[in-house]
Amino acid sequence: MTIKEQRREIDGMTIELRHEIDESRLEPITEMMSEEGWVGRPVVVYRTLAGQIRNITGCHRIQAAIDTDTPVPALVLTPMDVEAEDALEFAAANDDIDAAYIVRRYSTATAELIEQG
C-alpha cells in the first residue's frame, strides 16, 4: 500500500494533514465510516490568516471522510483563538496528547475532546 498525499480537499478547502496516512489504520476507519457515517468527536483544525487549514487531530478520520464523501465535524481554531507561538507548536505536535497540552491553555473543553482519542 502507498502513503496518501498529505494535502487533501475537504468542503471545498485544501487541508494539510499533520502526518502521513498509514493505510493499515485507514482501512477499518474508512469501512466503518462508509457504513455508519461520522461517529465520535469532531476533529480540531487550525485555519491560518491566509486561509490554510491544518489538522491538529484526526488525520485518518479526515482521510476516511474524504474517501467516503462524509461530512467532517470540526472545531476550527484561528489566530484570534491562540497565540502565535502556540500556532507554531501545533505544527510540531507529535500526537494528540501534545496538541491537547497546547489547546488546554485556551479551552479545557476542546482539550478534553482531543484527549478522548
Overall spatial form: globular
The radius of gyration computed from the alpha-carbon positions, rounded to a whole number of angstroms, is 14 Å
Structural class: alpha/beta
Task: Give helix % range.
Answer: 40-55%
- Poorly predicted runs of 5 or more residues: 1-7
**Largest sheet, order of strands side by side?**
1-2-4-3-5
- Count of domain modules: 1
**What's the story with the biggest beta sheet?**
5 strands, mixed
Could you tell me the CATH topology label. Conserved hypothetical protein from pyrococcus furiosus pfu- 392566-001, ParB domain
Query: DSSP strand (E) fraction?
Result: 15-25%
What is the highest CATH level, the class?
A: Alpha Beta
Order of helices and strands: EEHEEHEHHH
Number of helices: 5
Structure description:
It is a single chain. The chain contains 5 helices and 5 strands; from the N terminus they run ββαββαβααα. The protein has one domain: Conserved hypothetical protein from pyrococcus furiosus pfu- 392566-001, ParB domain. The two termini are 25 Å apart. It is 42% helix and 17% strand. Strand 3 and strand 4 (53-55) form a beta hairpin. With 117 residues, the protein is an alpha/beta fold. The protein has a 5-stranded mixed beta sheet, with helices on both faces.
